[in-house]
Structures are given as structure tokens and as C-alpha cells.
Amino acid sequence: MQKVNNSKTPEEATHIVALVRQLVSAINGNATEEVLPSSQAKQVRLALKILSSRISSRKQSYVDEQVIVERLKRSLAKANRIRDAVRLLELVNSLKQLCDNHQLTQVLYFLEELAYHEQELSHSKQQRLANQLSDLSVDPTLSNSSNPLKVSNPLLDSAIVDSNQVKNLESRGNEDTSHDDSKPNNTVREDAFQEYIVKENEAYEISEAILVREAIYAVQGIEGKYVKYQEQNDEYAVAPDIGVPQPVRELIRRICRMGWLYKHLKQQLQELQSNPSCGAISRSFCGAIENELDEYYEILAEVEAQAGMTNFENIENAGLLAAKGRDDLTLRKLFVWCQEPLEKLKWLSVLTEAAYNTKGGALLSILHEFTLHGDKSIQSLVCSILRKASVPLFDAVRKWILDGELDDPYEEFFIASRQGITAEDIWDKKFYIRQSMVPSFLSMESHLISSILLAGKTVVFLRKCCSDGSWLSDKFREPLFREKPLGYNQVDSLRVFVQAACEASSNRLKFLLFEKFLLKGHCMALRNLILLGQGDFVQNLLDSLAADLNEPSSDLYRNNLLGTLDASLRSSSAAITIASALSAEDSMMDNFTNEVLDRMDVRLLHPSSGAQGWDVFSLDYRFDVPLTSIFTKDVMEMYRKISRFLWYLKRSNYLLCTTWNTHFLSSSQDYKHTKLEMKPIARTLYNKIHFVRMKMMHFVENFQYYVMFEVLEVSWNELLNKLQKAQDMNELILAQRLFISKILEKLMLKEKFRSQYQRIRQLLDLTVRYHSFMRTWAMHKSIEDLDFSTEMEKRDENLLSKLVQIETQYDTIFEEFLQDLQTIEKDEIRALLFRLNFNGYYSSKMPTASQIARESHQHLSS
Questions:
Q1: What are 381-399's pLDDT values in tens digits?
Q2: Residues 6+ apart with CB under 8 A from 316
Q3: Per residue in 684-706, pLDDT tens?
Q4: Which of 765, 770, 831 is nearest to 805 (CA)?
Q5: How many helices (H) and strands (E) does the chain have?
């Protein structure tokens, strides 16, 4: 329809009125008359109402055939004209065949406006005012008036010219108003409410049911026809060209925040799952989030059922069923319902965002932090997700403990393994704890984590190093291990499970080490052979090797030394002593003897210029898997270090004993074969030789006693007790390390005892010098060449001078050594100091501890 411009001149308005009158007369078949019949006058009034109403002046920003049909249908449904509403759909389909879409839209729009204004004019005072204005327009006496009338109808402003008539109309309107005010308050209130409802409903271009349906689609991340995703604002909202009141737009926008969160959450999950580093725990976390979304879908299905959307065949039926009362879900109810799911989606999005670029135990630690939230509902939500996300972790724990297997391609588990590790180092270096992947709810249980590592390592060690996997397979089939529930917030159950599995596997390993691999026997072999605790073996070896070791180191051959070692072992009771201590049978004793012989070895150190065989010779003991995990390379290196030191000590004792034999035989021959008295210088030399030897023997024998009884024997008893009480492999290794470490400390072979160790080596070196001196003296001393010439006296004086020099150096170093021992606060060292100075002979020559402290303080002050 052509819309009438509101700014008409009086002449144009008068002309329009005349045209309307002519049109009505022509339609009714009457000639033009100045005064029309009442029926035709009513038709003129209606036509003027239409032309002067909002039909021609209201601007529509959006006109859609479907929207208009919906509004018409809704209006008929409110009037309880359901059949007419269905008939309307049939008529609209018929009109579609007669005209194009644009014409159809205009026709439907005109019909809608007619229905709207007919209802509006029947419920307001404007209807009465317009009726009287129309009566004035039909009166021929007003057609020639030129005075403007100031009323609210723009079309009749130029047709009504008498201001007095306007006053009369206004007074009549006031009378009508006063008449209406005389109605009861309840009636007025109901009329006002009905008028509000009508105006509110007419402010929608689409029904609320459609908006509810669109909002429900939007909260699922689906765009509708009227509610769409706006990229510029990053939100779902009603299209701007849809006629919907602003409060409703805001309400729908708030409801649709759930749709934005849902869409954002789905994108986050897709990114997590498409990440190449997404492992089992990350996938389980995504599955837990999707499970929560499944509950969200169930709630949405219930809402859709409540809204009647499941019965909607098309958009027309949606509005029709909503108008019939099949839908009691409004936007306000939907908004109230959205609050709880909206809060849940917020936290799901927060959890997913926090899980980005994390995996494994680190992901579980982040989730665990959210369980500290004060809101119980949030705690429950996070615990539910964490319980599902941690399932792969506890499955990996069970598989590691029972089968010793690590299936962790994405490095999510807190137990990790290194590649390229040999069987010798499988216990110590193969497996380790990846601290970054330890979940925070287990990090406080450090002993539990260590036990998990130990249990799996023990299983792997039994299978690969001890070849004993069948027993474990049978043992771990028990329900205690296979059916024990493990999961989040079940730390006590996990602790019981780990303790039982660790105890079973460790007991089996300990049994095999002691019974099958004879761990205790090998420890005794180290003590008696490498640490020189077997006296007859040591004496036989010294007697057999003395001649060879006195030669330069370059003349030694390892094969010859091995043969001598084998002969010394077989001629001694070392292997038999060890086997009898183990209470072994004869067959096992023979096997163990052969095994000890096979494991004993000789190691020659890199010789230096002028070194003798004593300086490069060292005993060694070889181990195979699985004992190499206990007697590791560093442990065996400490054994060799102690062995070389004790060998050097035994050498000094052996040399002093040999010197005593030489001195004794020489002295006996002198007194036996000569009747002449010895010169004073020779007698002095004889006495000095004996006195110096006794000094050295005093130190060597007391220190050797200290080594054998105060150090080795005590440490050995402690080792046996710890081996017996050991619960697992780690305790066996620790017992062995403590044993050898204590020996190193008590023998003053550690770095912190460098000064004391240097003094001991200097004293032992002086014994070797003394032996060399005695060999020189013995070469020049023989009964056949004995004389008392002046040349002999000079030679004795030179020898005496050298001996006095050795004695002076020895006394000086020995006194310094005793002073150093006073600074060590250990009972064993105190006992050694007492044995070396039991009669207080050196007390007068040594400063007291207070004097040493005072001198040290003065030295530091200067």
C-alpha cells in the first residue's frame, strides 16, 4: 500500500476526504451525494481511520512473510480461533500461487494491520475520539472550513477548522474519561494489564516460543534463523534487524552465553585431542569433560521436551502449539534454568584452559589444585573429572608393579626408563622418577612413590637378571593384586597394594640372591681374600710372590701371577672356610670353591718409572649379573683401594719380619764364629738396627691389629646383621655401601683424612727404606769377610749415619701422626692412639690438645 505522508496541506487533506467519499459511493453504486447514508458514512470513517492510522505511517525495518504469518496465527490463537488459524495457513498457501512473494508480503501486512488497529481502537479512548473526528469529516459544513484543528490525527489537521469544536470534542473526551474513572479499581487494573500485555506482545515480530527455540539451539552452539553468532562481538545474539525489545535481546544474550562457552569448550577439546602429545591421561581428561557435556545434553533434551520442540514439525506448528498452551517455558524460565549449567560450563572451560600444554601427572596436579576450592559443588565437579582422568595413571601403576612394564609413549607416567643401559646397571640406572609427572596428591607420599619405583624395578630385575618370571606370574594372579581397586582419593588402598606387591617381589629376590647366587658367600670371599682377612692365604701369597714382586714392574707377567694366586688359594683353607660358614653341602662346597677360584683375579696398575712389582700388584674379584647390581663398579673400586692399602701394610709387616730373620741370623753367626770383641761402632749399629726395627714393628703390628679387629671385624658383623634384616634390594645395596664406606673412614682413606693417610704412607715407606738398608747391610756383612779394619769401621759409621737418618725421620713423622690422631673425635681412632702410646712414652714429646689448638689459633691470627 502507498503510505500517506504526515505533512499534508489542508487542500490535500480535503481532497483525500473527497476522494474517499467518491470511492465509497462508487462501490455502493450511488451517485455522489452531499449527505451519505449512515452505512456509507461508517465506511468512510473506517477508511479515514486506516489512512490516518499507523498502517501508513509506521516504518518497518524488517518485513518477512513467515513472521507476519506467525503474528496473525498468534492473534487468532489468542482469540481461541484455532480452526481459523489452520484455515489461515491454507489461504496463505493459496495466495502464494496467485501472487509473487513481495505482493504476498504486502497483503499479509495489510491484513495484520487491520486486525491490530481494530483491536486497538476497540479498547481505548482513541477509538471514541476518532469516531467523532470522522463524524466531523462527513459533515458537509466542515468541508469548506479553513481554520486548522490541533488534534493528534495528522490527516485531519487540515480538514477540521473550528477550534471551538475541538474544545467540545476535548470536553466530551474528558467526560468519557471521568465516566471510565468511575469504574471499579479492579476493572481498571485488569484493563491496564490487558493493554500492557497487548502492547508487549505486539512489540515482538516473532513469538516468544520461537525465541525460546532459537535460544535452546544457541546454547548447543547451533545458529538459528534469528539468533546468530556475531563474530565481531564474539557472542550469540538476536539479529539486529529483528524487531525484538532491548530487554529481551539482553536476556537472550545472557542465555546464549552458554552457547559461547559450549562452542569455546568444544574448540578447546578439539585442540587438546588433536595435539600430537595428547596421551592417555589427556584423552581420559577430554573424555571426562565430554561425559559432563553428555549430562548437559540430557538436561537440554529435557528442556526441549518441556518446550514442546520435539513435537514441532515446522516453524508454523511451533507457534501454534505454543499459543495453545503446549509450551509453558518462557525466556525468563529458561534464563533461570541456565544459571547452574552456565556455572558448570564456566568451570569446565577453566579446567580445559588450565590443562592446555600439560600432560600426565602434571595435568592431574593442576586439576587437584581446583579441589581446594571453597564451593562444594565445584569440588564435587573437579573430583569427578579427576577421578576419571586419573584412571590411566593407576592402570599404569598396576601394570608397572605387577608386570614391570612401562607403556608410556607420551611420557605421562612418573616412572621413566633410560635406553641403552646394560644388564649390569639395570637396577641403578635404568629406571628413575620423573618428578615433573608426580601428581600433587601423591607428591606428599614420597615413600609411596619410592615404593612404587622399587616394586616395578624388582619385578624387572627378577625377570631379566634372575630369569625368574614364572613365580611372579603365579603370585600376582591373586585377587589381592589383580582386583584391588585403585583410584583418586584411594591413597590408603594404593599404599596397601604397593606394600603387598613390593614385599612379595622383594622377598623372592632376596631368597634368590642368598640361596641361588650365594650373596653371603661372595661377601665373605671379599672379606677374606680381597681385604686379606684369611691369614694363611695372605702368608702363602706373600711367600710365593715376594721374589717376583721385588723385580721391576716391567718384568711382571699376569699369567704367571694368576698361576701363583691359584696355587695360594688351593693351598689355603679360604674357600673351605667360606663354604663351611655357609653350612653348604659337599657338592655345593666344591662348586663354590671352583667359583671363587674363577672369580679371583690379578690387576696390574699402570707402572711408573722405577716401580717395583709391589707398587703395581693388586687383587681383584669379578662378579656377574645379578650381583653386579650390588657390587657395582664404584663399590669394587673402593674394595680395590682398601685392598691395595692393606696389601701395602702386609708388605711392610712381611718385610720387617724378613729383616728380623736376617738380623737374627747375622747376629748369631757373628757371635758364633768370632772370638774377638766387636768394635763399639759395630755394636752400636747392631743395637740401632734392632731398636729401629722394634719401633717400626710396634707401629705396623698395632695398626694391623686395629685394621683387622677394630675395623674389619666390627664392620663385618654389622654387615651381616644388615644383610639379614634387609627388606629389599635397596637395603642390600645400602648395607654393602655402608660397610665399605665405614672401612674407608676408619682406615683414614677418605679425602678428609688426607693428612693422616699421608703420615701412614710415609711411615710404611720408611719401613721399605729400612728393608732396603738392611739388604745393603747384609750384602756387606758376612762372617767370611769379617774384620775390624779401619775401612770396616768407616763403613759401619756410614751405615749408622743412614740408619740414624731413617730413625729421625720415622720419629718425626710418627709424632706428627699421633698429633693428627688427637684431632679426630672417633672411638676407634682413640683406641688406636692408646695402643700406639699405651705407656705414655710419646706423651712428653707431643703437645697436648690444648697446645695444638692454641698454636693453630695463633697461626690463623697471624
A1: 999 999 999 999 999 999 9
A2: 69, 70, 73, 89
A3: 887 888 888 899 999 999 999 99
A4: 770
A5: 37, 6
